[in-house]
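$ ./design --mode recover --in tokens.txt
reading tokens...
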């Protein structure tokens, strides 16, 4: 999409100012996404995600049609790009919001256990359902398939139409119409498909909406954002999910944006004015960057189901996320120190590490968020069995099963009424990562060298690694008094 918008801007203003136009359009896109993602999450918490996801794809289809009608970059192409960003942010946010519902409506209570949070005096029943990771793995897998579909099917359409005798402008316009029609088909599929299931009903908040005014309901819904932000700070699993989203999206930009710039600077010795300039004057750099990025995406595609197979956590420590962050930190350091003019086994290994890191953080950030949403807890005073559980350890499965009887199950509450808002904040973290890395990474690239952005990406991965290990150590420490009791 971004490539075709850039191509459209060439037809509108020529090649002289394309870089400035592309930068402005991309920055405005992500800036709007920062606001749009939480908005779509709040709206889905109020009306349900089925209507929201249909709206998102309908907006995408309409924006593609509008973009073709643009006759200038400012304001027409800019507004069309913002319109597209509005729909795209909706689609990405709803993917995260849908996952918990797919698990929570059908999950089994087998294998669940209760633990005590001494600081909040609550009983927590944490879902260890591996389907959180499994579904997230499928999301990562089909995201890769979607990228392959875009590259293999949609991207070549203009060239194929030109070979049939169309002008470049006409071929590009028809390509937009084809993709818009595809978005309409997806919207209809979501409308019909979710309607046929039981997981898409419009789930309301715990407030009695029928007895409240529109203003009261709106204010209650808006209060979800500070609630989720507070949970992100006080609940380690949710905070890790948000931080992993930040790292995952920054890794995506590092691979797609800064690797081509780095290779071009290394092989050509000077910055290129654009993609066409790289193709014309440094074909070797262009081909090598494409090969490196392709290797990374192939490994990401292969390892998506592998990470989905692993359970969300291994007792106290999130082993898969630890592996992903270690791979990222190691890979970016090695890539920044890699000086080669051709593909070698070492460069392939480095790109494999980057691909594994990217897909690992994507899959398990989704798993963490989805698991938190379906986590069940109740207050001790409502449970009536706090003392019995307080002295129990992990070996008392019979006691746990007794406490999970039907008469007590209704006392448990989840965060499902916040799942849309949580998904919005999750996507917000990713959009924030893109803005920070593109701006800060670009400045570091110009002032410190082509390898500087990769040191920054290594730092992001190390911060996430420290957070994962710290949360594991704190949880292990909290379990020690119980195991001795």
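writing sequence...
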């Amino acid at each position: 999409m971004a490539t075709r918008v850039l191509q459209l801007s060439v037809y509108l203003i020529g090649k002289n100012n394309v870089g400035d136009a592309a930068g402005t359009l991309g920055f405005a896109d992500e800036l709007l996404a920062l606001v749009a993602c939480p908005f779509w999450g709040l709206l889905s918490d109020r009306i349900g995600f089925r209507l929201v996801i249909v709206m998102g794809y309908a907006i995408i289809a309409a924006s593609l049609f509008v973009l073709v009608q643009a006759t200038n970059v400012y304001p027409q192409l800019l507004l069309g790009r913002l319109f597209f960003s509005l729909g795209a942010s909706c689609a990405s946010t709803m993917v995260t919001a849908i996952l918990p519902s797919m698990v929570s409506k059908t999950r089994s209570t087998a294998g669940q256990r209760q633990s005590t949070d001494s600081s909040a005096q609550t009983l927590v029943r944490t879902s260890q359902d591996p389907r959180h990771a499994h579904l997230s793995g499928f999301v990562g897998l089909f995201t890769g398939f979607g990228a392959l579909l875009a590259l293999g099917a949609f991207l070549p359409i203009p060239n194929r139409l030109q070979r049939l005798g169309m002008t470049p402008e006409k071929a590009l316009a028809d390509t937009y119409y084809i993709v818009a029609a595809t978005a309409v088909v997806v919207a209809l599929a979501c409308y019909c498909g979710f309607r046929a299931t039981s997981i898409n009903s419009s789930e309301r908040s715990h407030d009695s909406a029928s007895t409240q005014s529109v203003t009261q309901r709106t204010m209650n819904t808006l209060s979800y954002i500070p609630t989720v932000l507070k949970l992100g700070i006080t609940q380690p699993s949710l905070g890790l999910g948000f931080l992993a989203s930040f790292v995952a999206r920054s890794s995506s930009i590092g691979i797609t944006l800064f690797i081509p710039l780095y290779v071009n600077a290394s092989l050509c010795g000077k910055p290129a004015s654009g993609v066409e300039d790289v193709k014309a004057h440094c074909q070797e750099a262009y081909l090598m960057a494409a090969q490196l990025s392709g290797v990374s995406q192939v490994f990401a595609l292969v390892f998506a189901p592998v990470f989905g197979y692993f359970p969300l956590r291994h007792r106290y420590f999130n082993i898969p996320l630890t592996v992903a962050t270690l791979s990222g930190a190691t890979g970016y350091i090695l890539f920044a120190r890699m000086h080669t003019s051709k593909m070698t086994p070492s460069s392939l290994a480095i790109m494999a590490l980057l691909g594994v890191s990217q897909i690992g953080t994507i899959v398990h950030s989704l798993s963490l968020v989805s698991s938190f949403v379906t986590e069940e807890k109740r207050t001790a005073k409502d449970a009536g069995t706090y003392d019995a559980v307080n002295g129990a350890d992990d070996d008392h499965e019979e006691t746990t099963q007794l406490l999970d009887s039907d008469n007590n199950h209704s006392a448990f509450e989840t965060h499902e009424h916040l799942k849309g808002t949580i998904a919005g904040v999750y996507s917000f973290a990713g959009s924030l990562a893109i803005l920070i890395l593109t701006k800060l990474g670009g400045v570091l690239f110009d002032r410190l060298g082509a390898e500087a952005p990769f040191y920054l990406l290594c730092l992001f991965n190390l911060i996430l690694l420290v957070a994962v290990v710290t949360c594991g150590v704190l949880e292990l420490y909290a379990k020690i008094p119980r195991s001795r009791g």
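exit 0
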